[in-house]
């Protein structure tokens, strides 16, 4: 299993960051420009990644003010899990971590690791810009 992580520190309480991330409708704001045909509800989202694939995900697990896990609702090219964790940083702020776990063979790993890392980094960066 390949694990890609990106984390960021925010000057907001855990509850506020979790509340934003808990609604899949908000995740469109975190996506890069190569994502289009976005459609979402509170628990599910579907979108197209330019020159790649269409993906549909749903929140499969919620731990209030701690973590959210999303998995594909249709069979993807490889098994993948998208997780956000939030934790108090000790100063009333939040450490938000985006973790992408993907079951990649050697060939897919060479092709997909960099784009997946870029996606995770982009999403955590956008989170800081949106939740100022």
UniProtKB/TrEMBL annotation:
InterPro entries: START-like_dom_sf (IPR023393). It comes from the Bacteria. CDD domains: SRPBCC. This is SRPBCC family protein.
């Amino acid at each position: 299993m390949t694990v890609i992580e990106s984390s960021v520190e925010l000057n907001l309480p855990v509850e506020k960051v979790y509340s934003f991330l808990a609604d899949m409708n908000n995740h469109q704001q975190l996506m890069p420009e190569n994502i289009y045909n976005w459609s979402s509800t509170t628990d599910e989202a579907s979108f197209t990644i330019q020159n790649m694939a269409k993906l549909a995900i749903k929140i499969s697990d919620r731990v209030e003010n701690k973590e959210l896990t999303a998995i594909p609702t249709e069979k993807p090219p490889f098994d993948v899990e998208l997780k956000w964790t939030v934790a108090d940083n000790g100063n009333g702020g939040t450490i938000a971590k985006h973790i992408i776990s993907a079951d990649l063979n050697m060939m897919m790993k060479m092709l997909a690791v960099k784009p997946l890392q870029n996606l995770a980094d982009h999403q955590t960066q956008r989170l800081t810009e949106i939740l100022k």
